[in-house]
Specification:
alpha/beta, elongated, D-Maltodextrin-Binding Protein, domain 2, 3 domains
Length: 297
C-alpha cells in the first residue's frame, strides 16, 4: 500500500473533508481527491461515502482508518523517543488528570517542574473521563483508579481519605454538627451521577448515610458531577460536603468538621504506555510527583 496515499487517507478520515485535509497537508483539494481515488482504485474498494455534508467512512474505510491511526500513533511515539535528548529530558509531555486534582494540586506545582526542566513542553488536559493513552491522546495520566488496559504501566502515588468541610459562614448560619446524626438537619452537597464518567470512589455519597436512619433517607441540597464544583459550592456557604485530602491546601478557609468520621479511601495512580517506559520525560515527571507527595507528608 502506497505510504503517501495512506498518509493522505488518514488526514482525510481525521478531518472529514478533502478541503480541511488539504489545508493540513498543504495540498490542493483536487490533489487530495486524486490520491484518495487512486487508493480506492488500487484496493478496488470504496473508502468514503461522498455526501453534500462531507465524507463518511465506509465499513472498509473504518477498518483501514483504525489501522492507520494505530500506525501513526506508534510513529508519533517513536519520533518522540528518538528526538529526546540523551543528556537532558526535552520535548512534549501531555498530561491528563481529573479537573479537581489537576486544578487544585497539579497545576500550582508545574512551575517548579518547568523551572528544573525548561526544555520539556508541558500541556495539561483536565478531564474527568479517561483519555486513551494507548492511542496517544496523552502521554501520562494521573487517575483515581487503576488502569484497565493491560498495556499501561501504573505506579501507585498515594492513598487519601475524605474529610467533611463547611464554610465559617454556613456554620454561623446553620450551626456546627457535633455527631453524624446531626447531619439530618444540614444541607449536604454530594456528587451527582454522570454516566459519561466513573465515580471518583465507590460509595462516593457516603455522607448521606453516615449516622442516618434508613427509614428517613437524607436528601441532598445540591448534586454536582465534579469534585472541584463541590469544593466551590462548599466555599460559597451553600452546604457541607466530603472532600479528598489532596484539597487540604485549598481548605484553609473552610472548617474541618466531624473529624472522627472518615469516608472511603481514594487511591491515586500514575499511568503511562509501556512504550514510554524508558522515556526520560516520563521518568523525571514521575519522580517529581513522588517528591512533592513526600514533601506534603
Amino acid at each position: 500500500m502506497d505510504w503517501d496515499k495512506l498518509r493522505v487517507f488518514h488526514a482525510v478520515a481525521e478531518a472529514g473533508s478533502f478541503t480541511h485535509a488539504g489545508e493540513l497537508l498543504n495540498l490542493s483539494q483536487s490533489a487530495v481527491s486524486r490520491q484518495i481515488s487512486a487508493l480506492e482504485e488500487s484496493l478496488n474498494l470504496p473508502l468514503f461515502h461522498r455526501h453534500a455534508r462531507g465524507l463518511i467512512l465506509t465499513e472498509q474505510g473504518e477498518l483501514l482508518y483504525k489501522t492507520a491511526r494505530d500506525i501513526f500513533s506508534k510513529l508519533a511515539m517513536t519520533e518522540a523517543l528518538l528526538t529526546e535528548s540523551r543528556e537532558r529530558p526535552q520535548g512534549p509531555l501531555k498530561i491528563t488528570a481529573t479537573v479537581a486534582f489537576g486544578s487544585l494540586w497539579l497545576t500550582p506545582r508545574i512551575k517548579e517542574f518547568l523551572d528544573v526542566y525548561p526544555e520539556i513542553q508541558v500541556s495539561i488536559v483536565l478531564f474527568d473521563g479517561e483519555l486513551d493513552l494507548a492511542m496517544r491522546e496523552a502521554d501520562v495520566a494521573i487517575r483515581m483508579m487503576p488502569p484497565r488496559h493491560p498495556d499501561l504501566v501504573q505506579r501507585h502515588l498515594l492513598t487519601m481519605n475524605y474529610n467533611v468541610y463547611a464554610s465559617p459562614d454556613y456554620l454561623k448560619r446553620y450551626g456546627t454538627p457535633k455527631t453524624p446524626e446531626d447531619l439530618d438537619t444540614q444541607h449536604i452537597i454530594v456528587y451527582g451521577e454522570d454516566q459519561r464518567f466513573p465515580q471518583p470512589v465507590a460509595n462516593v455519597n457516603w455522607l448521606l448515610e453516615a449516622g442516618a436512619d434508613p427509614a428517613r433517607p437524607r436528601r441532598p441540597a445540591l448534586e454536582v458531577n465534579n469534585v472541584y464544583g463541590i469544593y466551590r459550592a462548599v466555599k460559597s456557604g451553600l452546604g457541607i460536603a466530603a472532600l479528598p485530602d489532596y484539597m487540604s491546601g485549598e481548605t484553609d478557609s473552610l472548617v474541618h468538621i466531624l473529624p472522627d468520621i472518615k469516608g472511603p479511601k481514594l487511591d491515586v495512580f500514575f499511568v503511562y504506555p509501556e512504550e514510554l517506559r524508558h522515556s526520560k520525560r516520563i521518568t523525571v515527571f514521575r519522580d517529581f510527583l513522588l517528591q512533592k507527595i513526600q514533601e506534603a507528608k
